[in-house]
Amino acid sequence: MNPDRLFPTRGGALCALLIAVLFCCSAAVAQSQYSSNRFPCSDGSEVVAADELGEKAIGVCNLEASHTLSPQGSGSIPFQIRSCWAWWEGNQWSTAYCSEKRDYTVELSGPTGGAGAFVLSGPGGDIPVEIAISHPAAGGPRALAPSQQSALLPGAPDGAQTPVSFEVTVPESANLAAGVYSNWFDFYLYQCQGDWQDSDCRGAVSEGRAELRPPIPFQIRLLVEPQIRISGLQDMVIDASGGGTAEAQQTFCVYTSGGADFRLRGDSRNGSGEFLLEGTSAGDTVGYRVRVQGLQPPRRRVWLGEGEFSGNRWQGHSQRDCLGGGDENMQLTIRVPSGELRDPQDRSYTDTLTLTVEIE
After folding, report:
1. Which of 49, 179, 205, 241 pairs with 90 at a CA distance of 20 to 30 A?
2. Contact predicate 160/83, CB 8 Å
3. Which is nearest to 184 in space by CA: 41, 75, 64?
4. Angstrom distance (rounded) from CA 51 to CA 49
């Protein structure tokens, strides 16, 4: 068509027919490859499709499971990570064996508490835990914040599996009732290509990198055994020089995990079915009585039978040693009735009293 040609229009006016041509250009955008962790424990030498290079690049070995930690307080979850890159889907060249190392960040998501810390849930409610990742080249464990990337961690060439671990720590102040505390968590891994220095590997878009999709679920179980501790008991000296009933008292601490209820039993070294103080003369004994009571409600004052658990129960203290002895929760009374002191043959009498705690 001749662009200078004029077309007549009604009314004698002239107009020119203009044709606009638009050219749309699109640039290819590099996209990450993904790993479903199909080959978790291999060296990445498997033959895959061209769009499955991520399966060669990433493998997380021995994490996808339930991990039970015991004893309470802390524990380690060991596993391995392969983070490398192969430019070919086959295995006929060295580069197909995932020869190039890739650095990466990791991320952990899961249940959190009010303070934004990870939590495990159990019979005592939610308890906060710190979860850190330990890497041989990281200079010690690095704490992980919920749903945030870690600092950059080094991968390894030639499909090597790097031994790593999660270090799980429970605060010493946590009040743990006996039982199992657990929750499920999701583990993410994002590679960074080459000399990438930004710690945001999740946001990096380039060829030659991969990430886990979907994340790997795993469970942490903390097994808390029942714990009991008696502390603060001292030797007792009873002055019977007054001739009447003689007695002495002292306070002590009974700690139980989670402040669980407990019962007490008293055993006399010299007695069998009764509490006896023994003199230096053979067969010379003095009987005594043992009373225990709580110092916090419910107090429940009880006279113990020798070798028998009390029928009453008390609540254990939730802190070991009752806050250093400053908050002892029990009282012990030793009483020698006046009738036992009418005709003593010796000047001193002794016994070893053993108190045993049974948790409910």
Report:
1. 205
2. no
3. 64
4. 5
